[in-house]
Design brief:
7-stranded parallel beta sheet; 10 helices; about 40% helix; about 20% strand
Length: about 300
C-alpha cells in the first residue's frame, strides 16, 4: 500500500485521536485538523496540526489543499454551548464537501451512524442523514461508514453511563422501557482500520458500510457490564418510554447537563445494529470483542 497524505477533520476528538495514531503507525503523513489547531503530545513528526473550522469554513480549503484523501469525523450528538446539529452535522458537512472539491482532495470518507433517517422528528439521526446525503450527492469520490456504538479510551456512550451511575443514580438507575434496545458495540481501533482502508482502497469508492462488533448487547446488558467493570451497584428500574420521554422534555429546557436528551430517548426505536459478520465481510478481519475495562481507571 502506498503511503498517503491524509487529512483528518476532527483529529482531536474521540475517533480522531485513535485514527491519527493508527495512520501514523501505518506510515502515512497526517494533517490533523481541529478548531484550535491543537497538537497532541502523542503525535510524531509525520503529523502536522492545522486549524480549520467546519462551522465557519475558516481554514478548511487551505488545510485540505494537496491532501490525497480526507476523513470527515466532526459531529455532535446534541446541541451544546451554542453549537447546533444543523450547524455542525449538516452545514459542517456541506462546507467540508465544498472545501474538498476546491482543494482537489482525491477521496473523502464520511463518518455517519447506524440508524440514520430522514425522519425530521429524530433530530440527531436526521441531521446525520442530511450530512451524509450532501457527501453522497457531491460528485466527489466518497465512502460512507455507519458504525454502531463505539468503545475505547475516551468514548462517549459508555463513559456517559458510568457518569450517570456516579452522579445521577443514587442507588437506582433508570432503564428506558424494557431495556432490550439492541446495540452492536464496535472497537474504535477497528473503526480506525476500516477508515484507513476506505481512504486508501480504490475499489471502495461509492460504498456505504454498516458495521458493528461481534455481539449484540441490550441496553440492560450494557448497564450491567458498566457496573461490573466500575464496581458500582445500582438497582435497575424499568421506566416506561412515555414517562422518561416526558421527563427529558423538561430536563432539555431547564437542566441541559442531564445525561440523556429527549431526542436520544426517541431515537432508541431506530436500529443500532447490523449483521454480525458485516465488519469481517467488508474488511477481512474479525472485530474485537466488547471490552470497556478502561472505565475501571
Amino acid at each position: 500500500m502506498d503511503r498517503m497524505e491524509i487529512a483528518v477533520i476532527g483529529a482531536t476528538g474521540f475517533v480522531g485521536r485513535h485514527l491519527v495514531g493508527h495512520l501514523q503507525e501505518r506510515g502515512h503523513r497526517v494533517r490533523a485538523l481541529s478548531r484550535s489547531g491543537q497538537r497532541l503530545p502523542e503525535w510524531g513528526d509525520a503529523v502536522v496540526a492545522r486549524a480549520a473550522n467546519v462551522e465557519t469554513g475558516e481554514g478548511l480549503e487551505e488545510a485540505l489543499a494537496g491532501a490525497d484523501s480526507a476523513a470527515h469525523l466532526v459531529a455532535i450528538p446534541r446541541p451544546a454551548r451554542g453549537r447546533t446539529l444543523e450547524g455542525v452535522n449538516v452545514r459542517g458537512a456541506q462546507r467540508v464537501v465544498a472545501a474538498a472539491a476546491a482543494a482537489g482532495v482525491g477521496r473523502i470518507v464520511h463518518l455517519s451512524a447506524l440508524g440514520v433517517t430522514d425522519d425530521p422528528h429524530l433530530d440527531y439521526l436526521s441531521s446525520k442523514w442530511r450530512g451524509e446525503q450532501l457527501v453522497r450527492d457531491s460528485g466527489l469520490d466518497w465512502v460512507v461508514l455507519r458504525p454502531s456504538l463505539l468503545f475505547g479510551e475516551g468514548d462517549g456512550f459508555f463513559s456517559l453511563i458510568e457518569t450517570t451511575l456516579t452522579w445521577w443514580s443514587p442507588g437506582v438507575v433508570a432503564i428506558p422501557g424494557d431495556g432490550q434496545a439492541r446495540f452492536q458495540p464496535l472497537s474504535v481501533d477497528d473503526l480506525a482500520i476500516a477508515i484507513e482502508r476506505c481512504l486508501t482502497d480504490e475499489e471502495r469508492r461509492g460504498q456505504v458500510y454498516e458495521i458493528g462488533g461481534p455481539d449484540y448487547l441490550s441496553y440492560r446488558q450494557i448497564v450491567d457490564r458498566v457496573m461490573q467493570v466500575t464496581g458500582k451497584r445500582r438497582l435497575k428500574l424499568n421506566m416506561p418510554i412515555p414517562l422518561i420521554s416526558a421527563l427529558t422534555v423538561v430536563t432539555d429546557r431547564i437542566l441541559p447537563i442531564f445525561p440523556v436528551s429527549h431526542d436520544q430517548i426517541r431515537s432508541l426505536g431506530r436500529p443500532n445494529y447490523t449483521d454480525l459478520g458485516a465488519f469481517e465481510e467488508a474488511f477481512g478481519i474479525a472485530p474485537r470483542p466488547f471490552d470497556i475495562g478502561y472505565l475501571a481507571h
